[in-house]
Amino acid sequence: MQRIPTTNVRGKGIDLNMKVLSINTSSRKNGNTAYACKVLAEAIAGADGEITHFDICKMDISPCKSCYACEVKGRCVVKDDWQKIHDALWEADALVFGTPVYVLRESAWARIFIERSVSLISHVEGLGKKGKTMYEAMREFKEEHPGEDYGMPSIRLPGGKHLYLVVTQNSPITYPAEQIMNYLSFIFAIVGCDIKRQWIITDTLESHDLKKSLEKDGLPPKVFSNL
Ligand SMILES: Cc1cc2nc3c(=O)[nH]c(=O)nc-3n(C[C@H](O)[C@H](O)[C@H](O)COP(=O)(O)O)c2cc1C
Prior knowledge:
Blueprint: E1 2-3, E2 19-24, H1 32-45, E3 50-55, H2 69-73, H3 82-91, E4 94-102, E5 105-106, H4 108-116, E6 121-122, H5 125-128, H6 134-144, E7 154-155, E8 162-168, H7 177-190, E9 194-202, H8 209-217, E10 222-225
Parallel strand pairs: 2-3, 2-4, 4-8, 8-9
Antiparallel strand pairs: 1-10, 4-5, 6-7, 9-10
The chain binds flavin mononucleotide (FMN).
């Protein structure tokens, strides 16, 4: 992880004029993660771009119900605000996804997003086309291919969406944010996103810490990136 020049935070080297979906998974609607997501989204969207921002903590969204209906229907069928996120994801050119560190991991809201993202891929699409239920298709595959996995899942989300990841934490060192960043990068790569930047912002405790230090001297407390 490299400490990065602050000028990059303001968008230098970032693709401009995009339709950007910004997702804050902090429990604070106006905290450091939300602020970082918005600053980045504005930089990416540019003058002619478009931003949709969601604070997941203010949405009606539950963890995955494990119904596997998405395998058959091609998208999650649970009637809550995931449907809004799904539609916005489809439309977006770029995604900014931010989580604070909560007890050495991503937030529970981030976890809910990740669980529901399972509906963006299919493990058994090819098998399901045989007109069987997903369970029948999976059972049949296991019988015919003992010891084998289903192979790579197929991605439903239109590919190549530019991804910008943000992790904020109070600790001044990059642990555990770096591990969380690696995990998020892996998950988003599976759903077909093209990772452009990773930002780890440290030393943020009070909700206004990042905003205050950016406004005061244009500097975030500390920003690290490994891309
Ligand atoms: C429940 C909880 C657990 C936290 N755990 C950690 C932690 O393990 N490591 C850390 O550095 N900061 C931890 N923090 C601090 C937050 O990650 C940090 O203040 C972050 O910037 C908050 O983001 P926000 O302003 O968007 O809410 C924790 C905060 C909360 C509320």
